[in-house]
Specification:
Strand order of the largest sheet: 7-11-6-1-4-5-12
Largest sheet: 7 strands, parallel
Order of helices and strands: EEEHEHEHEHEEEEEEEHEHEHEHEH
Number of strands: 17
Shape: elongated
Bound molecules: flavin-adenine dinucleotide
Structural class: alpha/beta
Strand content: 25-35%
């Protein structure tokens, strides 16, 4: 039976949810062996946890893998992928995954589909949908690989988490790590977040603002609305890039992952990098003046309109109700 390899990431020691989302995607392909690939240091516990879910767990346990290094990982995994000859290798579409996947694909001479949001078997290969043009177009892409199959990076959040694991007894295989290749990069330091920064990851209600706010001065209206709603203020990356709000308020793949119950998106287009940071299936309400904005594809409630007009009205309404 052919295999699917899933590259597992860990964030501050914990297994990243993307591993289980990709497992859901793989199980959806039918009878196939699903193997986790775990790289890092002191992998005993996480490997045992993964073995409850996956048919096989392959560990690369070495202090040199303690820090993310896509170049080193790709050189280490290439002979492994050649040996395993998987149908598909899935890598999370994260900062590290986006670095690892193309390097690995080039080394094993396999086609790569980046940022997949669906996955199905098509003939001898696979077919996946990926969004292009800032999420406005969905492209269906097929690829057939050689002996090393096809590589895909999978967008975080694109697949739902699997249910409680069966009593699966996956086998754990400790892979030998040769001295050569050696890492070509030297890890310098981890920069910890500012301890005084706001923690939006725990907020139940978020009012998030995007480039549609147009001017820093207009943020006061949004702050006031958030206060009226008892919500925390969040934003997209362009708002941080303009230095209008702190980085700790940025939601997304290169920002904070949030799990609110309610998410109000104001003047946000709905890029995958932003939406990738929203987990837990919150109720999403969006206001945007472009009826074709991708945010409306995921919003539970959408209003086509100008936030500069609607935010003060909304605040007034909410304060009125509270009174
Ligand atoms: P835009 O895409 O410019 O959208 C603005 C929206 O506002 C438009 O839809 C427009 O119709 C609407 N609008 C304009 N004026 C008004 C108005 N007056 N009233 C109502 N609507 C209005 N982005 C993140 O957010 N988080 C991340 O973590 C992140 N990480 C990234 C990582 C990488 C490697 C890269 C390449 C990009 C990343 N980005 C991230 C950026 C991302 O690709 C998008 O560019 C960004 O999310 C867009 O932000 P936006 O929706 O505010 O702006």
């Amino acid at each position: 039976m052919r295999k699917i390899l899933i590259v597992v990431e860990r964030a501050r020691g914990a297994l990243d949810e993307t591993a289980f989302e990709m497992l859901s995607a793989a199980r959806g392909l039918g009878e196939i062996t699903v193997a986790a690939v775990l790289m890092g240091e002191d992998l005993g516990e996480p490997a045992a946890e993964l073995a409850r879910w996956f048919d096989e767990v392959h560990t690369f346990d070495d202090p040199r893998l303690g820090q993310p290094d896509g170049d080193f990982q790709a050189r280490l995994l290439a002979p492994f992928v050649r040996r395993e000859q998987p149908l598909v290798t899935l890598v999370p579409h994260t900062n590290t995954g986006m670095e690892l996947a193309p390097m690995l694909a080039a080394r094993v001479d396999a086609p790569l589909i980046a940022d997949a949001v669906t996955l199905e078997v098509a003939g001898d290969g696979v077919r996946a949908v990926r969004t292009v043009l800032a999420g406005k177009v969905q492209a269906s892409v097929s690829a057939t690989g050689g002996p090393c199959g096809v590589l895909l990076t999978v967008r975080p959040g694109a697949f739902t988490l699997p249910d409680v694991p069966p009593e699966a007894a996956g086998t754990v295989h400790a892979e030998a790590i040769p001295d050569d290749p050696a890492p070509r990069r030297r890890f310098v330091e981890t920069v910890a977040p500012d301890p005084g920064a706001v923690d939006i990851s725990q907020a139940e209600v978020l009012v998030a603002v995007g480039r549609g706010i147009e001017d820093e001065e207009n943020l006061d209206e949004v702050r006031s609305l958030a206060e009226a709603m008892g919500a925390e203020l969040a934003c997209t990356r362009p708002v941080v890039d303009k230095k209008w709000l702190e980085k700790s308020r940025q939601v997304g793949t290169s920002g904070v992952t949030v799990k609110p119950r309610v998410y109000l998106a104001l003047g946000i287009s709905g890029s995958f990098q932003h939406m990738g940071g929203i987990k837990g299936g919150p109720f999403i309400a969006a206001i945007n003046k472009d009826p074709a904005a991708p945010i409306f594809d995921v919003a539970d409630v959408g209003v086509v309109g100008d936030i500069l007009d609607l935010v003060p009205l909304l605040e007034k309404k909410i304060r009125g109700r509270k009174a």
